[in-house]
From TrEMBL:
Name of the protein in question: Histidine--tRNA ligase
An example Gene Ontology molecular-function term: ATP binding
Species, as recorded: Chryseobacterium panacisoli
Catalysis: reaction(s): tRNA(His) + L-histidine + ATP = L-histidyl-tRNA(His) + AMP + diphosphate + H(+)
Gene: hisS
Localization in the cell: Cytoplasm
Any one of the GO BP annotations: histidyl-tRNA aminoacylation
Main location: cytoplasm
PANTHER family: HISTIDINE--TRNA LIGASE, HISTIDYL-TRNA SYNTHETASE
Amino acid sequence: MKPSLAKGTRDFTAQEVSRRKYIINILQNNFELFGFQPLETPSFENLSTLTGKYGEEGDRLIFKILNSGDYTSEVNQEDWDNKNHQKLVSQISEKALRYDLTVPFARFVAMNHGKLTFPFKRSQIQPVWRADRPQKGRYREFYQCDADVVGSESLLQEVELVQLYLKSFADLKVPVTIHMNNRKILSGLAEYAGITDKLIDFTVALDKLDKIGKEGVVKELLEREISQESIDKLDFLFSQSDDALENLLQLKEKFAGNEIGLKGVEELEYVLTQSLSLGVDMQNLVFNITLARGLDYYTGAIFEVKADEVAMGSIGGGGRYDNLTEVFGVKNIPGIGISFGLDRIYLVMEELNLFPEEASSKIEYLFANAGGEETIEALKLIMQLRAKGISAELYPENAKINKQFTYAEKKGIKNMVFLGEEEIKNNTVTYKDLEAGEKKTVSLEEFLGV
């Protein structure tokens, strides 16, 4: 049988692993600078922990794990005969791979809230799984890099997370724009259009604007039984100016007497003005009134980060979720968090050629193998280099020198070292810089940097 990969998964070469580690190291460093503590949770959770937290579309994308053994033995025969999918799932599957890092984090907080110091700030970098249709930048197994704060309603947390985003992408040299909105504004819009009972349908459709355009959104709203009259009242959403504060002023007028909508405008206005006062360039922040983010658990600010020079969709996102732990029986723990999309950030950096040379894993020295006692001396010298943190290896066989050179070139090794009888006798080392093509003989002390 010909081997193949499962759809939506990838193998990573040495260079890819090194470059991913480069991104992760920068993110981890910034998480620590901003006071976030690392956390890891299991790769799978109880299915009941995950379902009902991501909306109808999200629930369909959860990878369920079949129960061990004869998972059909406990199945209701009538449900089986009728192929009642929704009822069968809970009977044959008790576990599922995690869909994101936020819900498992909320579960952790609910289980440990008595031991935590609030506000509690955590960072987490782990893989997640979604049964999505694979395409460029969208995989079924991918990493999320999250930073969350729970136990604080202060809008300064939103301001801090904007700073975290901007500093991290500046360190990666990726030019980005942060799109912002507020779920209370979306609730206010639903109230303004008389479709409060259709809030979820409204936000799910609106969240697809980038993919299906205004015409597609309008069509989906009609399919979700939202009237043409309501859609007409919302038509201004599709023709916003470039001035965020001007758009918020326009909303204030439309939201006269609309308490939740005005609250959302006030919150977003605060985050924008405080970010500006800290020196953030307004070109880096966009008030995107059509930004909805499809997840049901957001209650306030929502963020989405887009690369300026590459058509990639979002490379980061997040928002405030003040009620998430309530579903686990723990009330009054507000939270907010953001996520960095490692895989998409990688693709953007690759396309823009932003990876520095040190982001690639390269061996410094390959020792040629001439056979005999010289190999033992070479191994002793290799041990000394490794003790100094310098990468080195010995070609394992006494092969023709051309074959050893070819090996070094294909692996991108920087230097080829020759340690023969003459070098051992004179306490010297001969090496060739394979990039410059220069050959040198130096003393052993000079070579080791003693």
